[in-house]
């Protein structure tokens, strides 16, 4: 018979909540750094949001980037960035939004194609006009806010409002730090990044809910125990699950990162960061923060905290 | 725990089978699934443009032009009516939303008011005390015009694209003034973009021979005439034409146009409908030996001299055509003119090479991700890990089946969604198994531990999955194309994983418990 290996020992007694000072400091530093990066460096918006042109080209041999740059620089298209993409034969050409309306953008694409000629394979051409870019930006912000709001309301309905606040705090922490990371590394912030952020939100809240469920259960079970003790116990009890799920998700994500092609690599990277920060925030932010919000403990009166129905 | 009612078992098996049935065509060669008996599902997952290669164009119909034309129409009506009744007026003009005119003499007010009261039935007409009349089309009228123009535009776009021979294009209305065009397999949309970039309004007008072009440039362009540039600049054509503004025959009357050859030169032959034939016949009879201009979108294609009356209603346009430009012009004339110009707001084109590579990379990432998770689950949970893996396998099968059945589009981010689901789908089982471990540690018997594990993990699983589902729904409502694909696979994955990891594993474990009657849980 297969003998399972316990990766996380059965009865851990790590006093997570007691280290909240350290965790909060660390998170404060991360958040401040994120805000600083956002304000000073800003996000490197991709063409999805800024408008502009992106072309992925492939050459039969290794691409000579300086040579392409020279050839394109005389076209007067403004800022043109060229970088290797995934393979040495592939390159991404990004061209800033051209002055004028959509027509001028289309003209720029044709100019580039004319200049580079048929020695390249045009694997991808993307053009986003200024109108659509602005709309996508707004839609992205609305989607993230809506996601947060619906999660807030759901947790509020299923738990107590205190939990809802804690979950949103943890979630905001994850989102801000992810956006901050993108500002710091100056990775392109595009539609896929927004998708990654929303997925991170989903994953992180998933993690938080699991721990919260246990907190709720234990609060009911151990009425006399101090809050921080109940919290520690709950985190430890769910620690194995939290770790295991993070590992399986990370396995899948690393596989996308390494084998899923260059287009998905950035997305996977954002998600990898998100899974790590989401797991951290569920343990070190979402739960300890409950200590500072007036958590009702239903002594005798259980109306405040409803136990799961299966509790008998 | 051992009670797992027969209907539930049947349901579980049935859902897995149906999922598999719908998923199977994806793994067969096209010839086989197409020759499938009719009752069996033969649809495959439809691949997004980023995977199969193709072009995505978001077009905007410039509806302001439509409104402008509408107002100009009203202004023309006003002019005609007032002139006919010999009423003096001034300041006739259109603003962005209305047409206004001032009636000069007080004694004309009552007559003009009567005349203008029904100049446009869908307009609000205000008569000022000092002779000012303001005609403002009502919002409904404007909306109606815009909608009609949008629908016409879609129709013309469809005709033009169909003429190019693109297979299975998708042309959809989006919002109030946009058209979404998806062209699978088109990796160089330049020709289509060029075709859609022209309104292709063709008119026949007489050339003004009262002055030479140079005279008109240096002195004054005669009123009722204008200078127009040629469509194709070449040495043999003049750089400008002086053309009368009045339209003799318009392209609306064309019923056919074909590219052919005349004396070895590519030309376009055309044919008018009955009305157009009559008018064209009259115009050409009246103007023998004078040049007339064939004008497309305010550019002169050519300006031949009328040798003899053309009464048959058909003719030939020659010009500096190549075979390609002749073909394109014929196509545009056949498909008809757009009511308003189109602008390309967004373009995303993926070549077949990248699409193929993306599919391969997606497959590789899925398989490796799947293998890693499978191995990890067996190492971590032993026999139960195998149960979870079986559930995972069926989860993927059902996702594929659902995607095929719903004909949802699978995109590259969608593949990422599936891989991510692989990682996250086992979460429910992890939750259950960890709970079983706890219950075992509390000293419960296998059956009661497993039972408690499932029961207690259930609320957590539902809570956590529903919240992720919310995120996926938000993503769907926000996203365009590829991102929508991601949201779809993520959402389907969440739902199917809840089924497989709760129901299916339970089913398997019940079978195992019944068969083995174990004294301890190997977890």
Give the topology, please.
The complex is a heterodimer of chains A (312) and B (523).
Chain A: H1 20-40, E1 44-45, H2 47-50, E2 52-59, H3 65-73, E3 80-85, E4 87-95, H4 102-116, E5 120-128, H5 130-158, H6 161-185, E6 188-189, H7 191-221, H8 227-259, H9 262-286
Parallel strand pairs in A: 1-6
Antiparallel strand pairs in A: 2-4, 2-5, 3-4
Helix pairs in contact in A: 1-6, 5-6, 5-7, 6-7, 6-9, 7-8, 7-9, 8-9
Chain B: H1 6-23, H2 30-34, E1 46-47, H3 49-52, E2 54-61, H4 63-84, E3 89-94, E4 99-103, H5 109-116, E5 123-127, E6 132-137, H6 139-164, E7 170-174, E8 178-184, H7 190-196, E9 202-207, H8 213-218, E10 225-228, E11 241-250, E12 254-262, E13 265-272, H9 274-286, E14 292-296, E15 299-302, E16 314-317, H10 323-335, E17 342-350, H11 352-406, E18 409-410, H12 412-441, H13 446-478, H14 481-516
Parallel strand pairs in B: 1-18
Antiparallel strand pairs in B: 2-8, 2-17, 3-4, 4-6, 5-6, 7-8, 9-11, 9-14, 10-11, 12-13, 13-16, 14-15
CATH superfamily of the largest domain in chain A: Multidrug efflux transporter AcrB transmembrane domain
Give the oligomeric state of the chains in this entry, treating copies of one chain as homo and distinct chains as hetero.
Answer: heterodimer
Distance separating the two termini of chain A: 34 Å
Q: Write down the overall mean pLDDT of chain A.
A: 86
The structural class of chain A is: alpha+beta
The largest sheet of chain B is:
5 strands, antiparallel
Number of strands of chain A: 6
Count of the separate structural domains of chain B: 3
**Poorly predicted runs of 5 or more residues of chain A:** 300-312
- The gyration radius over C-alpha positions of chain B equals 35 Å
CATH fold annotation of the largest domain in chain B: Multidrug efflux transporter AcrB transmembrane fold
CATH class division of the largest domain in chain B: Mainly Alpha
Pairing-aware structural class of the strands and helices of chain B?
alpha+beta
Fill in the CATH topology of the largest domain in chain A. Multidrug efflux transporter AcrB transmembrane fold
Strand % of chain A is 5-15%
